[in-house]
Amino acid sequence: MHPDVQKILLSEEQIRERVKELGQQISQDYHAREVLVVGILKGAMIFLADLVRNLSVSTYFDFMAVSSYGSGTKSSGAVRILKDLDKSIEGKHVLIVEDIVDTGLTLKYLVENLKSRNPESLKICTLLDKPDRRTVDVQVDYTGFTIPNEFVVGYGLDFDERYRNLPYIAVLKPEVYQG
Ligand code: PRP
Ligand code: 7HP
Predict the structure, then answer these.
(1) Mean pLDDT for all residues in the chain
(2) How many structural domains does the chain have?
(3) Residue 19 to residues 12, 85, 118: CA-CA distances in angstroms?
(4) Which band of pLDDT confidence, cut at 50, 70 and 90, is reported for residue 70?
(5) Which domain holds residue 44?
């Protein structure tokens, strides 16, 4: 275990099993259709890499990177696009892949933004859901795990851009957050 980790919330094996199940469910639901997986950088990259290897439907990817306008205005839901999709999604079956839904502001913005581009369908898959933190309503179609209101790192999720490479989801020791 990494020395900064206080406890492991979800082990490598738990994640592997659940990602496999999600892949099977998504493959059934999209049967015989082609799915455009839209990964939201950077947090979703590891989840996406594992999820798509569990999909049996025809799959291709694109990526977006977004950032909220700083903590002071975060509740406004204002989101800035740092990297947009490479191609049009008009007429495509789009699956947004996120690492975590927290307040829901990022996803609410993304859904409204992508819907306006006229995809054939738009669904959301998140590895983690923290419902206690939600401030806006978002309809999530596939959820890996519902977790308590604790700040977590690993498997793509960061604290100050670190710990994304941990193979499990963990809570850090309090002294790490306090600097
Ligand atoms: C995280 C996460 C979601 C968002 C969730 O991204 O990946 O996109 O926050 O929070 P919300 O539901 O409160 O909007 P972050 O901005 O930390 O970027 P990162 O993926 O590059 O770490
Ligand atoms: C964003 C985020 N990033 C890492 N860990 C968490 O618990 C988070 N919630 N929202």
Answers:
(1) 94
(2) 1
(3) 10, 24, 28
(4) low
(5) 13-150
